[in-house]
Design goal:
This protein has 226 residues and is of the alpha/beta class. It has one domain: Class I glutamine amidotransferase (GATase) domain (Rossmann fold, 3-Layer(aba) Sandwich). Helices cover 23% and strands 25% of the residues. It has a nine-stranded mixed beta sheet, sandwiched between helices. Helix 1 packs across helix 5. The radius of gyration is 16 Å and the shape is globular. Pfam families: GATase_5. One of its GO terms (cellular component) is cytoplasm.
Amino acid sequence: MTARIGVVTFPGSLDDRDTQRAIRVAGAEPVALWHKDKDLKQVDAVVLCGGFSYGDYLRAGAIARFSPVMDTVIDQAKAGLPVLGICNGFQILTEAHLLPGGMLGNDHLHFICRDQKLRVENADTAWTGDYTAGQEIHIPLKNMDGRYVADRRTLDELEGEGRVAFRYLDVNPNGSLNDIAGITNAAGNVVGLMPHPEHAVEPLIGTGRTDGLPFFTSILKKLVNA
């Protein structure tokens, strides 16, 4: 029996179907989860997908963080459930304090949509095991509030503990401190990033490469071998 990976849909989510497809392409079973339901349907992992939950009112992810489903996600993530936050999902994870820091508007004040070069900094998390540290990949990026910020102490901890998971290369597209594109918690089960790996799992879509697929094969192998 294959792993079951839940994908949460909030009002304003855009990439839930794409994420479900990416999970299916990797060989796992996607399970649709609704923001009003606290029941995670016994899934083995959860993805918070991209979009503009609740229209990004107040702050991106600030309202979604209080959805009923997040009560369960937070509790189970603290108990070890693997959780991946993509773009808006990353913003929700910082608002829920499952990941440190926060997200602000891009420094150039414009929405950005581009293929983005990244370097894998940490290949030891539940979601990055099929990469190698130092590997350079290309993943689509699309956001308005993608600038990662944190105080100096938090940045020093992330760098010192190897918790920067991905870093922007060639160009910093949004002004994120330390060129940070994605981070992980200390346990390695919660990962958030602004680029969209679900858009790079098949040659015909996204970058024309499959550089995003290892996110989903990594967690499948992690769960199957657990």
